[in-house]
Design goal:
mainly alpha, 2 domains, two-stranded antiparallel ribbon, 3% strand
């Protein structure tokens, strides 16, 4: 188990360096917002802030242009590390004319990053701009690092099956886009770990855990999620559904079902009120803590700005003559969503969506198998609860994307990464499907999934090297030299990370090989 966490952490660390500075979704804006909070320790109103000149001036150093992925890097143009500029060198710290759209989000992720930057101020040296971005990438990686453990805990609490739990822990390693986003400056990462932790608790709630401690923990995690990103608004119904399911479980049965000598049961209606009362108190406590702790941010937006999530820089208005075509938009959106769930789209040769769509269909088939072939300790209702965070966030994403399409005429806001907060639950359900399908061969499932994960990550890494660090005239050796030249890490440190990743992967495979004897 912990070997898998080590592999996941090293994958995140390597990918933090593998992708060039700012080549992650909205990364320049996330970096600027974090630096703004560090500088002023306050949160600007929607539309108040523009990107800092310090940040926009750094774009040219890495050939970054908004809305344009840019060209591969030439190692001959890489500035020596000792001569790379700091953000202060790139100043002054004043607004540019480029909007800062991240004010639409709550501040929790950026506050954490600002604390990291404040701690770095105590270092005896000043960081170059690319090293500072790398530090914030590592901050994100640390946030998302517990995901395999949380997927394991979710599957274990739902199924009680050790093989399924290990498969669930391994599945996050098989999503290259997840390790890319997890190692970039992006507020998705804090939401991922908060919702994953909540899902692990709700797996127990659905099984009958109606303890006060669990209810408070669910509420606190939900409140923090609401203070991180708007997709958390999909979570209150998920919490309510989990507690309603918990009413059917053994913990409540002790309130209204009594064993009788003949071996049957005798219902006690007078105790049912006590059971439902406990359900109401615990579920109400979880929702109360969640909404009181986090909903105030969104209510304040509604009162002050007339919208839950003001988007002052989104230009509404469709082109002249535009007619919505939902028969075209729906399959296009699904294909794009599925592809972007697995791979960074600009790295896939030819922009093909096929690899991501195929991987999504395989995952969907495994989830379906879990419901069709129930051979673990989880019922179909248990599995349904684990899927709810993913489905709820997917519904919010789909609604927002459709709204943008109808209002602007452009297919925007469609990205699989938005549903990563629900990945722990989906991984647990897919793992139940894997072990149910394999039956007596289930002991090989974790090792097989690790092998698939390694193949997907290796392919994605080759694509990334070719896309960003090479060209049609160069090979992987030249691409690797370009990466080493531009990397904010010194070459020995980067090589050491790759060697450690290979060693940790081999050790994890060996550990799963040994563990298979206990899974028979």
């Amino acid at each position: 188990m912990w070997a898998l966490v080590a592999v996941f952490g090293l994958l995140l660390a390597v990918q933090a360096v593998l992708f060039p500075t700012y080549r992650s979704p909205d990364e320049p804006a996330h970096v600027d917002m974090t630096r703004a909070v560090r500088a002023e320790w306050r949160w600007p109103d929607p539309g108040e802030r523009r990107l800092s000149v310090e940040v926009t001036n750094s774009w040219g150093l890495v050939a970054y242009r908004p809305w344009d992925p840019g060209l591969p890097f030439d190692r001959r143009l890489a500035p020596p590390r000792g001569e790379r500029l700091t953000f202060a060198d790139l100043g002054p710290d004043r607004p540019s004319d480029i909007p800062q759209q991240m004010t639409q989000h709550p501040p929790l992720y950026y506050l954490g990053g600002a604390v990291v930057l404040a701690a770095a101020d105590a270092l005896p040296f000043t960081m170059a701009y690319d090293v500072e971005v790398l530090l914030l990438r590592f901050y994100s990686a640390v946030l998302v690092l517990p995901l395999p453990v949380l997927a394991w805990a979710t599957a274990w609490r739902a199924t009680g099956d050790r093989a399924a739990a290990l498969v669930a822990a391994t599945l996050p390693l098989a999503v290259p886009m997840l390790t890319h986003i997890g190692s970039s400056v992006n507020n998705d990462n804090l939401l991922v770990v908060l919702v994953a932790a909540m899902t692990a608790l709700l797996a127990g709630v659905a099984k009958g855990d109606l303890s006060a401690r669990t209810a408070v923990a669910v509420g606190v995690l939900g409140a923090l999620a609401l203070l991180t990103k708007g997709f958390a608004l999909a979570l209150p119904p998920v919490v309510a559904a989990a507690y309603l399911l918990g009413a059917r479980r053994p913990l409540l049965s002790r309130f209204w079902v009594r064993q009788v000598p003949a071996g049957g049961t005798e219902r006690h209606p007078e105790r049912m009120g006590r059971g439902w009362g406990l359900l109401g108190r615990r579920g109400g406590a979880a929702l109360g803590v969640m909404l009181a702790g986090g909903l105030w941010w969104w209510v304040a937006n509604l009162v002050r700005h007339g919208s839950l999530q003001p988007l002052p820089f989104v230009e509404r208005g469709v082109p002249e003559g535009f007619t919505p075509d939902l028969a075209w938009w729906a399959p296009f959106a699904l294909e794009r969503f599925a592809s972007r769930f697995w791979f960074e789209p600009v790295t896939v040769p030819g922009g093909s969506t096929t690899p991501g769509v195929v991987a999504s269909l395989v995952l969907l088939a495994l989830v379906g198998a879990a419901f069709a072939v129930v051979r673990t300790g989880a019922t179909r209702a248990d599995l349904a609860v684990l899927c709810l965070p993913f489905l709820g966030i997917f519904a919010v994403v789909a609604y927002g994307a459709l709204d943008l399409y109808l209002d602007t005429g452009a297919p925007r806001g469609i990205h699989g990464r938005y549903t990563y907060p629900g990945l722990a639950g989906v991984a647990a359900v897919a793992a139940a499907g894997v072990v149910s399908l394999l039956g007596r061969h289930r002991r090989w499932a974790p090792l097989a999934v690790l092998g698939v994960a390694g193949a997907l990550q290796l392919q994605a890494g080759v694509w990334t090297l070719d896309r960003w660090w090479g060209s049609t005239e160069t090979g992987l050796a030249d691409s690797t030299r370009a990466l080493l030249a531009w990397s904010p890490l010194a070459s020995p440190a980067l090589v050491a990370l790759v060697v450690l990743l290979a060693a940790a992967s081999a050790f994890a495979a060996l550990a799963l090989w040994v563990e298979r004897r206990r899974l028979a």
